[in-house]
Amino acid sequence: xxxxxxxxxxxxxxxxxxxxxxxxxxxxxxxxxxxxxxxxxxxxxxxxxxxxxxxxxxxxxxxxxxxxxxxxxxxxxxxxxxxxxxxxxxxxxxxxxxxxxxxxxxxxxxxxxxxxxxxxxxxxxxxxxxxxxxxxxxxxxxxxxxxxxxxxxxxxxxxxxxxxxxxxxxxxxxxxxxxxxxxxxxxxxxxxxxxxxxxxxxxxxxxxxxxxxxxxxxxxxxxxxxxxxxxxxxxxxxxxxxx
Length: 243
Ligand SMILES: C[S@@+](CC[C@H](N)C(=O)[O-])C[C@H]1O[C@@H](n2cnc3c(N)ncnc32)[C@H](O)[C@@H]1O
Prior knowledge:
Layout: H1 8-13, H2 17-20, H3 28-36, E1 43-46, H4 54-59, E2 64-68, H5 71-80, E3 85-88, E4 101-106, H6 119-130, E5 131-142, E6 153-161, E7 164-173, E8 178-187, E9 190-199, H7 203-212, E10 216-221, E11 234-240
Parallel strand pairs: 1-2, 1-4, 2-3, 4-5
Antiparallel strand pairs: 5-11, 6-7, 7-8, 8-9, 10-11
Helix pairs in contact: 6-7
The structure holds S-adenosylmethionine.
Residues 6, 9-10, 24, 47-49, 52-53, 68-70, 73, 90-92, 107-108, 110, 113-114 line the site of S-adenosylmethionine.
């Protein structure tokens, strides 16, 4: 599959995102994690989507700037959080002044939507410049452990109802460390495609990107909750721009 334009994923998923990913929660654990570590705002959330975690961040006292490439996602975010600052932009090119940002949060694997070679490293370098000295870059990502060991393609059933089936079709490229996929909704009214494309960077690769950008790693753990200390299939990593 060709690389997708930055707004394609969000525009295709905006109508189902909150319903399909309701089990992710509202980000209260994420907000508590930031507060406990003294992470400062304003918080720029890259790929803010429909604003799943915005309410929890604001309830914790953070000013939030929600950035997303998708007009459809941002329309949902605006509806849910009318007073939150919104920026429509590609996260590869964040249009905020150097040194102006307290922290950048990239939740739920969103950095990996930058699937083209070198795009994540370029974004991390650009984000590091936007941070104030002492500012934090906080990532939640899949580790990718074992992901590319099995079959290189699969078709699974995401949901099945009397009048609709959603299939998930995935193709892995172990050399490029990419996954290209489609959620395919089939119903009597037709077929709807929701494409996605991810480049999985290992934790070590992310560390190398951050180091090249002048950031230091502060912490890595398995998730946002107090008990999520061990890294499993995902990790939360905190980087800091030195003072
Ligand atoms: C997996 S969703 C995450 C939404 C939200 N952060 C959450 O945790 O539920 C990824 C979001 O990133 C956005 N996105 C994907 N690629 C992007 C890009 N290159 N620039 C800006 N936003 C992008 C999509 O539109 C979508 O809203």
